[in-house]
Amino acid sequence: MTVGIRTLGQHVIAAIGWDRDAGWAGTRDAIDAAIAAGVGGFLIRGGPRVEVAQLARALHAHSPVPLLVAADLERGAGEHFPGAVSMPPALALASLGDTDAVWRSARIIARDAREMGINWALGPVCDLDLDNGNPIVGTRAFGADPQRVAECGAEWIDACQAESVLACAKHFPGHGRTSIDSHLALPVQDESLTELMASDLVPFRAAIDSGVASVMTAHVAFPALDRAGLPATLSASTIALLRGELGFQGLVVTDALDMGGVLASHDQPAAAVRALAAGCDLLFAPDDPADIVRAIADAVADGRLDDERLSASRQRRDMWAAWGRWFPDSRGPTLDDRTWAKQVSDRVLQIARGRVPWVPPTCEVVMVDDDPASAAPSRGSFVQSLRALGRKVTVVPGATPSGEGVLVIAVFADVCAGKGHVSITPQSRLTVRLAVQTARTLKRDSLVVLFGHPRLAAELPDASHLLCAWSGDKGMQEAAARALVT
């Protein structure tokens, strides 16, 4: 490849996915190809903490320029990297009414990331939780109130960037009103600019005022901002609003280019070129980084892309990569940090109905999983934690509990990319209903533990006792288990 093409490769952030069977070995060729294409960084998806650290450190060590190594860290590194610290979802933290909890959570997340070699945290979510039917925001947001979300988002950014880890406010200009998951299709929102300025854009303005390093665009169309109906990622007028009216001077980055929302009318190379032409600086997670780099080079050669403007984007990338440059002696979370993470997970638990019955030494658990297996974290932590706390646990099918004592019904109904819905499915609701009815027939107490948004409790009316644990992450599963035995 020529030096010019390798330089253009810096606009691309290549995705690396951990394979449970092959580890990184299955992606070695893709990593080598991405490095050969001169990519400006990597997005790491999954993998044990130690393995991620080894890979990220190797990438930093072998790169001729400072790299941006990113990960989705909204709920802590433990959300995707086993062995790292897990945190409650943003909405759970905000429910405490304690911005110090948000600040400390983000600081621990950044410390964990930094020690692993990750210098770019793709958070916080600055969307508003405005639509009960939204399948992709929900507990990821700090709430529905613009000022409250703005305050929490600013705290998160300040704490994260104080540890020399770039933060990323997402998804501009707002994904909170949508009823469609942009992983699957293109949502269209009809709010006027006046309405957006008064609500959805308030947290993004606060994030910019806090000096956030990057802003991620939404694969959502706003006709009031773009008459052609293009998603924000491809809309020059929408990004001009971000740069002009809101005065943002940092990195504008796309959401992943493998998502249905941006591919509604463009293939990945065309979407990449269109995004850069619209004013984006960096392109996230294309299937074939080298193919994207070739498309960029062709667009520069035929005048569809202005190389002078792209040069300004690369300068921004270089500046922020140098600012967050990783060093091997980066300090990770302390023992106090890990203890606090468990304590705050305990604090956010909510009794949505009834009470939490004390679980006797022997108990039965019904597992009701409403999430796609491909997107869901491990479900074993809840039962494993109960056993570690001295309970003899038998996992039973939903309609056939036969023992004594409290029947615990664990319902997993999280926000998952590509899931496409937020409500609990009829089959899962029926399973809960039958389990509760069977327990009543046997004159046993039953407790539903909901690993999802508190408002989903209304979909489980048969449960007399319901504990909300917000999400199915390992940390929240462990916190729910502690609540049942103490």
Low-confidence stretches: none
Q: What's the number of helices?
A: 16
Large-scale geometry: globular
Q: Gap between N and C termini, in Å?
A: 62 Å
> How many discrete domains?
2
Q: Can you lay out the helices and strands and say which pair or pack?
A:
Elements: H1 3-8, E1 12-17, H2 28-36, E2 41-45, H3 49-62, E3 68-71, H4 90-94, H5 99-116, E4 120-121, H6 146-162, E5 168-172, H7 193-198, H8 202-209, E6 214-217, H9 236-243, E7 251-256, H10 268-278, E8 282-284, H11 289-301, H12 307-323, H13 335-348, E9 350-353, E10 362-369, H14 380-388, E11 392-395, E12 407-413, H15 426-441, E13 446-452, E14 466-468, H16 474-485
Parallel strand pairs: 1-2, 1-8, 2-3, 3-4, 5-6, 6-7, 7-8, 10-11, 10-12, 12-13, 13-14
Antiparallel strand pairs: 9-14
Helix pairs in contact: 5-6, 6-8, 10-11, 13-16, 14-16
Describe the structure.
By secondary structure, the chain is α/β, with parallel strands linked by helices. The protein has two domains: 3-323, TIM Barrel; 349-485, 3-Layer(aba) Sandwich (Rossmann fold). Helix content is 38%, strand content 14%. The protein is built from 16 helices and 14 strands. It has helices at 3-8, 28-36, 49-62, 90-94, 99-116, 146-162, 193-198, 202-209, 236-243, 268-278, 289-301, 307-323, 335-348, 380-388, 426-441, 474-485, and strands spanning 12-17, 41-45, 68-71, 120-121, 168-172, 214-217, 251-256, 282-284, 350-353, 362-369, 392-395, 407-413, 446-452, 466-468. The strands form two sheets. The chain has an eight-stranded parallel beta sheet with strand order 4-3-2-1-8-7-6-5. It has a six-stranded mixed beta sheet with strand order 9-14-13-12-10-11, sandwiched between helices. α10 links the parallel β7 (251-256) and β8. The longest helix is centred in the N-terminal third of the chain and has 18 residues, at 99-116. It is globular. The model has no long low-confidence stretch (mean pLDDT 93).
